[in-house]
Amino acid sequence: MLSEFDLIKEYFQRPRHAAAPPVALGIGDDCALLAPTPGMQTAISSDMLVEGRHFFAGADALKLGHKSLAVNLSDLAAMGARPVGFTLALALPAAERDWLQGFSQGLFALADAFNIELIGGDTTRGPLNICITVFGEVAPGRALRRGAALAGDDIWISGTLGDARLALADLRGELAQPLDAASQRSAAARLHTPVPRVELGMLLAGQGIAHAAIDISDGLIGDLGHILKLSHVGATLDVDALPAGDILATRDTALRRAYSAAGGDDYELCFTAPASAREAVLALAGSVATPVTRVGRIEAQAGLRLVDAGGAPLELQLAGFDHFTS
Amino acid sequence: MLSEFDLIKEYFQRPRHAAAPPVALGIGDDCALLAPTPGMQTAISSDMLVEGRHFFAGADALKLGHKSLAVNLSDLAAMGARPVGFTLALALPAAERDWLQGFSQGLFALADAFNIELIGGDTTRGPLNICITVFGEVAPGRALRRGAALAGDDIWISGTLGDARLALADLRGELAQPLDAASQRSAAARLHTPVPRVELGMLLAGQGIAHAAIDISDGLIGDLGHILKLSHVGATLDVDALPAGDILATRDTALRRAYSAAGGDDYELCFTAPASAREAVLALAGSVATPVTRVGRIEAQAGLRLVDAGGAPLELQLAGFDHFTS
């Protein structure tokens, strides 16, 4: 039977990768050690994924490895921090080789894409639970804070929204008109293997162009709401300007509005920047091949006003996802 | 019903504490920010506690709050790092106010004792699971590494061993002679509210007196084994010299030997130091009122040799705890 130490050694310890700067010491001691780049701040975020809550029982292990790290990297992206490493704490019902092989493969493929390393963690037996804590670096005063939006700022969205929610609805059998096989594959990729907008976040922070940012994990309206609350501002959001995902864009208006405005699992960035920076934002996003769309404006008046393409008020019955009330 | 955001705000967010150096930004954004003390390394450790595995279902929430942080601080102690902050990811079956009140009280009482703050994390619904990642600071080259033991070093143990295991055995009804009420209370305190040896670890590292160290969480023999393996050395351990806990010391020799050598949940430090440093070790430990006991010696010959008080070889059928094979 696979012991805890064999499990770590076989699937998670990669000695030749473990100590590239700023990682001074990786897996295998009581603690990992980071040697922070002089003058830089360390950005830290922690996300916990639970079976039956964040993913279905029996979910593909490789995709789960990818997504577990992706949602954490998305938090670094929203701060504008450069990823440097992460810890993984893992509770498993049993030490199954197939699962471990797939999970670690998905995890390390994404880690390698961002040139970061697993530096420590914990494994134990228990109901499947994946807790990753990720570390990044950002220059003092450069981090993109939720509370930094200013009245007059444009509201921008990276990429597209809603296809992840569409895939989930399809999996749950909630769609009156189910997805065809090709659409299913395309939408499911958005749900299971989101790509965190790390380069965009780093450039927005590094060049001092954006004011506030957040990553869209619980649905745009809920997440934008955090920016508004912490910045003590309001906003008008053009719901019809929201960039719907490729598959969602083919569905009816009501579904498109609902899932792009309040879908969840998008892992795109919502950020604000002064109107004077419009061309700079577009140039910067273009330099990392990330589409960005202007979808509204920050205003001094509190509250979030949803409007349609013609500027008329929209009433959508929507709310951000909450783990304890839904 | 208590929402995720209300839950965090009500039980875990303490604004006036959240941004003392080196914490530049606490709870409430996409990431927390640390501003590392110039020239210092960041020590990081992550532990996951699962109901039914690390604690009984229905365990006292206040003690659980204490222990969840204590086991992480113990890892910092074993590295000799000064604690600076921690993140908490928490999966809960339901948002129960009584439980949250107790858990956060136990957690913050210990955090306050070490003047550290909760800087971020995650909450979700799911089978009870507590994942804490802790951060500390240590000067480059000073961290107490598992692989740094040298032949000729003394082996030292802080405090006493085995009472936590004794309490567990009693709770499980494994003892032929159960504990009386007073003994139960005393031993249970060692099991449920361990006190991490942070000051001792910091002094041992800061003054450069110790070579290797580890915290004893899975039983001394198993944990010392990690030092031996990574240091490429062996050792002779005087099992009868092991400092048994107050209650364990009153039991028979076989139980005393077994639980002090391979009990688990002790959260004491096992460290090695050159024989020339004996007086310095005793003086340093005395300065933080932490008893330390010399229990053996590191040797060039591989393997761990257990002996009794007379120096005769002892055969104990013992092994460190493993989450996937036990």
TrEMBL record, chains A, B:
The residues the record assigns to binding Mg(2+) 1 are: 46-47, 122
**Which pathway is this protein engaged in?**
Cofactor biosynthesis; thiamine diphosphate biosynthesis; thiamine diphosphate from thiamine phosphate: step 1/1
Q: Which residues does the annotation say bind Mg(2+) 3? A: 30, 75, 215
What residues does Mg(2+) 2 bind to?
47, 75
Is tRNA processing tagged as a keyword?
no
Q: What is its EC number?
A: 2.7.4.16
Name the positions where substrate binds. Answer: 54, 265, 321
Looking at the record, the residues that make up the PurM-like N-terminal domain are: 28-138
Keyword set for this entry? ATP-binding, Kinase, Magnesium, Metal-binding, Nucleotide-binding, Thiamine biosynthesis, Transferase
Q: Could you say which residues bind ATP here?
A: 121-122, 146, 217
InterPro entries given for it? PurM-like_C_dom (IPR010918), PurM-like_C_sf (IPR036676), PurM-like_N (IPR016188), PurM-like_N_sf (IPR036921), ThiL-like (IPR006283)
- Biological processes per GO annotation: thiamine biosynthetic process; thiamine diphosphate biosynthetic process
| Residues holding Mg(2+) 5 | 218
- Domain PurM-like C-terminal, by residue range, is 152-307
Report the GO molecular function annotations: ATP binding; magnesium ion binding; thiamine-phosphate kinase activity
- Top EC class for this record: transferase
> Anything further noted?
Reaction mechanism of ThiL seems to utilize a direct, inline transfer of the gamma-phosphate of ATP to TMP rather than a phosphorylated enzyme intermediate.
HAMAP family from the UniProt entry: TMP_kinase
Biological role: Catalyzes the ATP-dependent phosphorylation of thiamine-monophosphate (TMP) to form thiamine-pyrophosphate (TPP), the active form of vitamin B1.
NCBIfam families in UniProt: thiL
- Family statement drawn from the similarity comment of this UniProt entry: Belongs to the thiamine-monophosphate kinase family.
This protein is called Thiamine-monophosphate kinase
